[in-house]
Prior knowledge:
Elements lengths: L2 H17 L3 E2 H7 L4 H13 L3 E4 L4 E4 L1 H14 L2 H15 L2 E8 L2 E8 L14 E2 L5 H7 L4 H8 L15 H14 L2 E4 L6 E9 L5 E10 L12 H19 L3
Antiparallel strand pairs: 1-3, 2-3, 4-5, 4-9, 5-6, 7-8, 8-9
Helix pairs in contact: 1-3, 5-9
Amino acid sequence: MSEGTVGKAMSVLDLVASKGRPVRLVEVQDEADYPKATLYRLLQSLVKEGLLTFSPERQTYALGLRLVRLAHSAWSQSSLGPVARPVIEALAAKVGETVHLAQLDQGQVLYVDKRNALRPIEMFSQAGKVGPAYCTGVGKAMLAFLGEAELDAALKRQAFYQHTRSTLMGTEALRAELAAIRKAGVAYDREEHEAGIICIAVPILTGAGRVIGGLSVTSSVQRHSLEALEVFRAPLIDAAAMIARDAEAWLFPA
């Protein structure tokens, strides 16, 4: 495929993936900016390459197993997941609450790994899901420590949708919050993404101060107040430092 065709095919693949379920041609056509014949050829190419599968019985397209293999390879080579796993398992066992490991992806939060609390809470986050950065503790923790150019680019990608009454709305309010986070070294989710869900979060920084991820301990207002989350600050900071140290040793061995 030509460079232009590859780009078109990837946009169609992204569209199918965004649905989270098998989709019919007409559903893709409703949102794709390509003529039906072009769209059909792109879908057929993706099926041929194993990136999509097609069900003749249901007349639907779904993500292919080749994507699973590629995703697993990418996760194992570039994600913090493998190197951080023992650290977040130890942290979750120590605090007894939900622990999230995340990285920034195009200005949004990619949940890389998650360990549930001893008494799990129903919430949006799952490993592999993408969530907003501007209204999550782990997202704000990472945004706060970006360089100015990176931060400007990330802020332009924020939707600023009002999820709850506590959601920060607009770049100006978010920048003020990020300045406070840089000073404090920790971020909080004050029921900004989901009502009843609160967290304390920290960035994972290299020795040079580059953001490589974020780590949070999440609870609910039924179990903790925001002030009570302070008990998790020290173990959270220690865990983030261990992950950063291990990640640098893994990526840049002596």
